[in-house]
Amino acid sequence: MTLQHFMNEAISPWMREEGPDGDIVLSSRIRLARNFSEVSYPILADLDKLEGIRDFFKEQYDHQSFEDYEDFAFIPISDLTAVEKRVLVEKHLISPHLAKHAQAAATLISKNEQVSVMINEEDHIRIQLYFPGFQLNKALKKAFEFDDWLEEKINYAFDGTRGYLTSCPTNVGTGMRASVMMHLPALSMTKQINRMIPAINQLGLVVRGIYGEGSEAMGSIFQISNQITLGKSEEDIIDDLESVVRQLIGHERKARNHLMEQSGTKLEDRIYRSYGVLEYSRIIESKEAASCLSNVRLGIDLGLIKNVSRNILNELMVLTQPGFLQQYAKKTLTANERDVLRASLIRERLQLEK
């Protein structure tokens, strides 16, 4: 598997599958933070120690497979261009921190892009495993199995009382961040999400934008994840998160029904106007594109738009990001050039659906 494989397609293979509650929950993710027991954390470790960890992963896991996760590609971050790094961030295969700040950084990515391992990020190892739709328990089971596979060759930093030891105290314990990516357009339109977020935060969960901490919730897409990693088991954390997500799913469906019943014509107008903007615009900024794509996806989910698939919308959410646009163009683009190309690609993809 080569780097170009991950650059060519905006949508990861696993994202083409339909998951439970897929009209609202885009994906479920489990991230596990782990460290080597005899090496200082990346923020303190000598460069040669970090390079040793990086080289260990290349020697042991490059082109290896584990169950359904085949042909892991080992990719040193230093080998990537700025655009290539940005594309991997936009596809959620690596974090912005790994792309910009980590020393001796690398990643392992499975052929289907369902599993990625970030090496020498904030911790020595950060395992990410994704499933389509609302499948937290299944994702946790597979993440445990993959973690056990790595641990056969790695002595993790672990304390009998505190659990897994991590660079940041907020990850000590399970070392786990479980999250779901949710599309909540009706709650956004009715402003209900604004009062729900503080309540969710009080339950030990956090609501972020599409790219995690510090990012904006573009296109009414929100990431809900746990904050607490110490004092609870992984299963308890999943149960708490699942309970809140199920409530959000219920509220979103209720809000969608309410909008259709009380403001059906206005909602249809908003959806079809967005479709028209996407189909005919010659220049469009990323924020406007995300908003229009969100409205059109809602139209698909409500059965108002029948000639466009959810997969096209998922693909366009990534394909129209700055990194992917420049990867597609094979050159650095100005903001205006990106806006023109973004509009062109959206028109082209929508035409393919007809």
Structural write-up:
- This protein is of the alpha+beta class and 354 residues long.
- The protein has a domain of 90 residues.
- The chain is 47% helix and 15% strand.
- It is built from twelve helices and ten strands.
- The strands form two sheets. It has an eight-stranded antiparallel sheet with strand order 2-3-4-5-1-8-10-9, with helices on one face. Strands 6-7 form a two-stranded antiparallel ribbon.
- Helix 3 packs across helix 11, helix 8 crosses helix 9 and helix 9 packs antiparallel against helix 10.
- It is globular, with a radius of gyration of 21 Å.
- 44% of the residues are buried.
- The mean pLDDT is 91.
Annotate the secondary structure layout.
Blueprint: H1 3-8, E1 25-34, H2 47-61, E2 73-76, H3 82-90, H4 96-100, E3 106-109, E4 115-119, E5 125-132, H5 136-151, E6 158-159, E7 163-164, E8 176-183, H6 185-189, H7 192-201, E9 205-208, E10 221-226, H8 234-280, H9 286-301, H10 310-319, H11 322-329, H12 335-352
Antiparallel strand pairs: 1-5, 1-8, 2-3, 3-4, 4-5, 6-7, 8-10, 9-10
